[in-house]
Amino acid sequence: MKSPSSHLAIDFGAKLAGTTVVCSAKNGHLHLLQSAKKQDADAWLRNIIAEQNPSAVYMDAPLSLPGVYQGEGDNFHYRQCDRLLGAMSPMFLGGLTARAMQVRAAFPLIPFYEIYPAQLVRIAFQGDVFYKKDLSAFLVKKAEKLPFPFAKQPENWHQVDAALAWLSGWRHGRGEALPFGEEGEGLIWV
Fold first, then answer.
1. Cα of 50 vs its chain's centroid, Å
2. Are the C-beta atoms of residues 62 and 90 closer than 8 Å to each other?
3. pLDDT > 50? residue 3
4. Does an H or E element contain 170, and which?
5. What is the Cα–Cα distance from 109 to 115, expressed in whole angstroms?
6. Burial class, 91, CB count within 10 angstroms (exposed 0-12 / middle 13-18 / buried 19+)
7. pLDDT reported for residue 4
8. Close Cβ partners of 92 (under 8 Å, ≥ 6 residues apart)
9. Burial level of 127, CB count in 10 A (0-12/13-18/19+)?
10. Looking at residues 151-158, what average pLDDT do you find?
């Protein structure tokens, strides 16, 4: 049986931009890996998931489409979870959504969960005013909320979001995460 910290978390970015980041816990520290610019982030990510064989993956990207595409409801743009949290439409994100769903489909035996770092900040950090504005201040004030220290301090917001995705997974494993949305259409865990 895998430990509750054997999950991976992903801040999923554009395929070639070098903005996809993976966060995992090893030896009592959070480790961050970031894709390189002009590198196929999806192939890189599939390799990491295959190598680490995590207990679960928590991804900051839409992993489903609005219910209307399955014959439920009438909203072609948003899922209920998107409306509840003010998240972007999976349809607006288009290619990113399709890529995230494709990565998920490559690992049918590993559970994938959609997360939303901005909502975690609103709930767990009381809407911290430094989030996405002052990286140093956010890290100084909020790093103590993480159960493990960083092996190396995050250098950008993509790395912070991957760590927040990891924290959502940690909360989920401990029964503390909250689901938003409808089971059949898609849930976002915070």
1. 18
2. yes
3. no
4. helix 157-173
5. 19
6. middle
7. 44
8. 77
9. exposed
10. 96
Distance CA 53, CA 46 (A): 10
Tokens of 175: 């029964």
Total count of domains within the chain: 1
pLDDT of 162-185, one tens digit each?
999 999 999 999 999 999 999 999
Distance, in Å, from the CA atom of 94 to the CA atom of 189, rounded to the nearest integer, reads: 21
Asked whether 30 and 14 are in contact (CB, 8 A), the reply is no
CATH code, 80: 3.30.420.10
- Tell me which of 96 and 128 has the higher pLDDT: 96
- DSSP secondary structure code for residue 39 in this structure: S
Tell me the backbone φ, ψ of residue 24, rounded to 5 degrees.
-145, 160
Mean pLDDT of 6-25: 97
Burial of 23 (0-12, 13-18, 19+ CB in 10 A): buried
Classify residue 2: in a domain, yes or no: no
| 79, part of any domain | yes
Residue 101 per-residue DSSP state: H
Domain that holds residue 111: 8-189
> For residues 190 and 178, what is the distance between their CA atoms, to the nearest angstrom?
5
**Count helices and strands in the chain by DSSP H and E runs:** 7, 7
